[in-house]
Amino acid sequence: MNYPALFVNFKTYRKGTGEKAAELAQVCENVSRETNESVVPVVQTADLYRVSRVVDVPFYGQRIDPVGYGSNTGKVLPEALVQNGASGVVINHSEDRRSKDVIRKCLERAEKQDLESMVCAKDPEEAGKISGFGPDMVAIEPPELIGGDVSVSDAKPELITEAVEKVNQPLICGAGIKKREDVEKALDLGADGIFVASGIVKSEDPEERIRKMVSSF
Fold first, then answer.
1. Coil, strand, or helix at residue 85?
2. In b/e form, how buried is each residue of 21-59, taking b as 16+ CB within 10 angstroms?
3. What's the predicted TM-score (pTM) here?
């Protein structure tokens, strides 16, 4: 992974599902190749294989469970992510919170499968604890700002600076980031990358929004 990096979370938005997921992933790839910057799609488990058929850049899954092959109906097997082309996974997003024990077990399973791991934290204190678990990246995302119109870099810049002091891995910043200025400020505060969802996926022109954000890199 090259830093700074932009992670684009497709969530389960209409514009990030099925054929639209494949199209958006191709947009991410095109900008990444043209700018030589890391633009990483983060896609639904159901769309991993579809995305793998149309892009060559790294992309992440949105979840894994700490299970192996066997009787685990409804769980997301780490091996399945790898076999469907994913190179990494997001763990403990604010919309998919996991216990500390489950986070540890997910990280163990991800490491065995050579999946890069980004673990999300709601505040600097949690970020520091998660850093001790040894993920590849820690993302700081205050839940109250996710999906809103005010970025964490504007509303709570101290969360970024405090997290930088507590985290030993690259720090990724998310929540409410929509503009180039939001990205610039987050990077100036010490973040190593940006985690964006609605600011790109729900925009009228996702490609233009991605280009503007990575121009800050």
1. coil
2. bbebbbbbbbbbeeeebbbbbbbbbebbebbbeebebbb
3. 0.94
Q: Strand, helix or coil at 91?
A: strand
Q: Which residues contact 199 (CB under 8 A, 6 or more apart)?
A: 176, 177, 178, 179, 209
Q: What is the pLDDT along the chain (217 residues), one digit of tens a residue?
A: 889 999 999 999 999 999 999 999 999 999 999 999 999 999 999 999 999 999 999 999 999 999 999 999 999 999 999 999 999 999 999 999 999 999 999 999 999 999 999 999 999 999 999 999 999 999 998 766 555 565 666 667 888 889 999 999 999 998 777 788 889 988 998 999 999 999 999 999 999 999 999 999 9
Residues whose CB is less than 8 angstroms from the CB of residue 19 and which lie 6 or more positions away in sequence, other chains included: 50
Expressed in angstroms, the distance from the first to the final Cα of the chain is: 14
Active-site positions? 93, 141
